[in-house]
Design a protein that fits this description.
- The chain has helices spanning 13-18, 22-25, 50-65, 79-85, 112-117, 123-129, 139-142, 156-167, 183-190, 242-247, 269-278, 280-304, and strands spanning 2-5, 33-38, 69-74, 88-89, 94-96, 100-108, 149-151, 194-198, 203-205, 214-226, 229-234, 239-240, 254-267.
- It is globular.
- Helix 11 packs across helix 12.
- It contains 12 helices and 13 strands.
- Strands 7, 8, 9, 10, 11, 12 and 13 form a 7-stranded antiparallel β-sheet that branches.
- The protein has 2 domains: 2-142, Gcn5-related N-acetyltransferase (GNAT) (Aminopeptidase), CATH 3.40.630; 149-304, Jelly Rolls, CATH 2.60.120.
- It is α+β, with helices and mostly antiparallel strands and 308 residues long.
Length: 308
Amino acid sequence: MRIHLGMDGAIPDPFKTVYDLERFVTTVPYENMSVVTRFMVNRAHRHTQVSFQLIHANSEFHLLQGIQLGFIACSPHLLNLYLALGFRTFTKNYSDAEVGFVVPMAYVVRDLVYLESIASPLSGLTAKYVTPAEIPPWVDSVLPTHSSVRSERFDQGQYWSDLYGLLTEKSQGKYYIFDGLSDDQIKLLLGKGHVIQCRNGELVVRKGTVSHGIFLLLSGVLEVRDDHRAINVLGRGEVFGELGFLLDSPRTANVYAVGDDVRILSLDDQTLRGLMTTDALTSAQFLLNLSKVLCLRLVQVQSRFSFD
């Protein structure tokens, strides 16, 4: 884990831009901020307590050093994890040169009231250092109630409104990913998803990165590229990222947003895999629909090379 500490003058100017730090600096000086720019766990230690132990140690370090705000850039498939820990979305998303599309998130180190309200696993640690429970007085003035990411957790009405058009409309000539599922089953699948706004030219998925979530394009156009060569164009209602999910493999192509009205639905793989255990019928129908999507794409590829 690599942490840039404001107290050491180690927050580079580009970070101040992408994390919109100017909005905070009038109430929280840079000396009381940090930015985590690297968090990696050896494959042998993934799915163990090591990841949380690092996060726990980092949180305690912040409490001991008097850091008030911590920032990270979160990949879409990890949003549920960091939201549950107590991080919050607050500004525009951006494309990182190494991992592609990321969501800036902020962690208010001493906001014990908020951590307890969401049952964050870090609330017990924070309670050892913050007594009585407090809400820093500047929080409401610098953290917005909305961001470029929508989820049922924070904005239930708008979240389902954004999704309604896709959920009730089937693209002509394409298999609908929610065919055969009831409204309740669809809500079960999407309840922990996120609607993310993308801007023209943003790199949504970077080839070679390791993430296994599935995406649905709600509006706009996406271009799939192998290096600099366009190999496919995706329209509303289409799924992408399914190979990484099904094969547990790195991303096979770059995906770019085309135009400013691009909204995607991000579904994390842990939620989908968990559903296989808790609701076999829903997950079986969803996987069947996903298989149909893949088969249709295979037919389309074959037709391009057909000389009949």
